[in-house]
């Protein structure tokens, strides 16, 4: 893990050195990754839209025949939540409980408006998992404590991943907990100067197993390791994209 953290900080330092990028190049890069965040986050929750279908919907408003309306609404909701998350990352708004509930509200604004930003009042379970989430009567107290800790949390990768885990462990909402936790994590990463992390469909089994182990055995090493690996890989992708976007030197200056 120490080698992984050093690799991340080295890549972040290189990324910082390349900033600021040309606004037009940065806009295209951010848009690509925001579609990626939407597709991957929804896909691991069972959304049937492919990466291309998600992009066509977001960029051109093209819906896919034969696919559920809810899947389209989830993609539109998530993308709008990503845009708000990026806007919030550039402001000084204190990160706390209110930010978490607003992220959730935006994530399910059209797909499930009746639960948007509202804590669940009934038991929550994940099919096939032995994890038991806290009694719904305890959610307000747990989220209040979580929000206060969030306000004081450093903007480090480890802290962002811990916030992600803690929110999924409380599981305060009837649906959309994972999507909210991943956007909260990425909000913290962006504020800290890192790149947002996508948990890909091929990571799903390892990701869910790591979350489950954290809840059942109080062992966050597998989860922290996976997320640090994904951050390291994403920073490498960002660096490659940044280098490609840099203007080529003029021949007479080589």
Keywords:
globular; mainly alpha; 254 residues
Which structural class matches the secondary elements? mainly alpha
- Report the CATH superfamily: Fido-like domain
What is the residue-mean pLDDT, rounded to a whole number?
91
> What is the ordering of alpha helices and beta strands?
HHHHHHHHHH
* Name of the CATH architecture: Orthogonal Bundle
Describe this structure in words.
The chain has one domain: Fido-like domain (Fic-like fold), CATH 1.10.3290. Helix 9 (204-217) runs antiparallel to helix 10 (221-245). Residues 249-254 have low confidence and may be disordered. It is mainly α and 254 residues long. 35% of the residues are buried. It has helices at residues 2-18, 23-43, 51-60, 69-89, 97-107, 139-152, 157-170, 177-191, 204-217, 221-245. It is globular, with a radius of gyration of 19 Å.
In short:
64% of the residues lie in helices and 0% in strands. It has helices at 2-18, 23-43, 51-60, 69-89, 97-107, 139-152, 157-170, 177-191, 204-217, 221-245.
Secondary structure: elements and pairs:
Blueprint: H1 2-18, H2 23-43, H3 51-60, H4 69-89, H5 97-107, H6 139-152, H7 157-170, H8 177-191, H9 204-217, H10 221-245
């Amino acid at each position: 893990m120490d080698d992984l953290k050093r690799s991340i900080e080295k890549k972040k330092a290189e990324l910082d050195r390349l900033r600021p990028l040309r606004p037009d190049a940065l806009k295209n890069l951010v848009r690509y990754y925001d579609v990626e965040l939407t597709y991957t986050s929804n896909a691991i929750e069972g959304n049937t839209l492919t990466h291309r279908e998600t992009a066509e919907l977001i960029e051109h408003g093209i819906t896919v025949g034969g696919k559920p309306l809810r899947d389209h609404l989830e993609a539109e909701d998530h993308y709008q939540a990503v845009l708000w998350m990026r806007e919030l990352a550039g402001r000084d708004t204190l990160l706390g409980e209110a930010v978490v509930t607003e992220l959730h509200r935006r994530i399910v604004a059209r797909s499930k408006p009746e639960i948007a930003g509202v804590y669940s009042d009934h038991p929550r379970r994940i099919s096939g998992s032995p994890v038991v989430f806290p009694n719904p009567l305890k959610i307000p107290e747990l989220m209040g404590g979580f929000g206060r800790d969030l306000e004081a949390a450093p903007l480090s990768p480890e802290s962002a991943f811990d916030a992600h885990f803690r929110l999924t462990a409380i599981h305060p909402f009837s649906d959309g907990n994972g999507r909210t936790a991943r956007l909260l994590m990425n909000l913290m990463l962006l504020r800290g100067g890192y790149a947002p992390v996508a948990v890909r469909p091929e990571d799903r089994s390892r990701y869910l197993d790591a979350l489950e182990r954290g809840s059942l055995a109080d062992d966050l090493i597998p989860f922290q390791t996976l997320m640090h690996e994904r951050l390291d890989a994403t920073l490498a992708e960002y660096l490659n994209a940044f280098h490609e976007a840099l203007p080529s030197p003029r021949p007479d200056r080589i």
